[in-house]
Amino acid sequence: MQHAMLGSLRVSRIGLGAMSMAGTLLSGGGLDDAESIRAVHRALDLGVTHIDTAESYGPYHSEETIGTVAELVAEGKVLHIGLSEASPDTIRRAHAVHPIAALQTEYSLWTRDVETELLPLLRELGIGLVPYAPLGHGFLTGQIRTPDEIPDGDWRKTNPRFIGEAFYQNLRLVEEVRNIAAEVSATPAQIALAWLVAQGGDIAPIPGSRRVARVEENTAADGVVLTADQLQRLDTLTPATGARHDDFNESTIDR
Description:
This protein is of the alpha/beta class and 255 residues long. The protein has a single domain, classed as TIM Barrel (Alpha-Beta Barrel). The chain has 10 helices and 7 strands. It has helices spanning 33-45, 61-66, 69-74, 88-97, 118-125, 164-183, 188-197, 212-219, 228-235, 247-250, and strands at 3-6, 9-12, 16-17, 51-52, 82-84, 102-106, 128-132. The strands form 3 sheets. A 3-stranded parallel beta sheet has the order 5-6-7, covered by helices on one side. A two-stranded antiparallel sheet has the order 1-2. Strand 5, helix 4 and strand 6 (102-106) form a beta-alpha-beta unit. The protein is globular and about 45 Å long. The model has no long low-confidence stretch (mean pLDDT 86).
């Protein structure tokens, strides 16, 4: 496993996001803590040193499955500070108080807002980037072909990019990713991750999963090499249709 630098923190280039372990995405079935624990152990076996969780996952459920932040603080194991979905102004003010190691925000082939203002700022300040939802909340894997495949209760049911005509418009983007995946004998998920890590050594995505097979697939993206032509084609993919969050969630980010 290759590595990325988040400020002065060295982490595996591919991490593991814990949101799905709390049952927020239901296409893989209901909660299964034993399965989640197996996935965490497999990730560690494969060289993953970056496991991301948050109190909002559940809430608290994923932290209870991999240990509490309070215990880590008490043991002196929390040595770096990160922010999530912060605005440029907040990042500057926080960094002036104490060096920030990383910003977590959404970044993927279908969400590239970060490239305009945030990524240049992070690089100016020496802050790493932790992209969440690097697989477009599962859409970029190509596994979801119709909105009906998303179970009731899954929050994607209200996400603008997964609703109605926008869903089918966004399938065109997935097909373009599939074409490149076929060229290098990889999966669409691996292509999406390989494109992300190719954007710089200060970027460490956290694809979320609670299944061993998916952890293995995602971490294997570390070995996928894309040509300059393939990277250029991915850079110019059809933009996603629809906002990345509904109105309520949009109001809570970039603050």
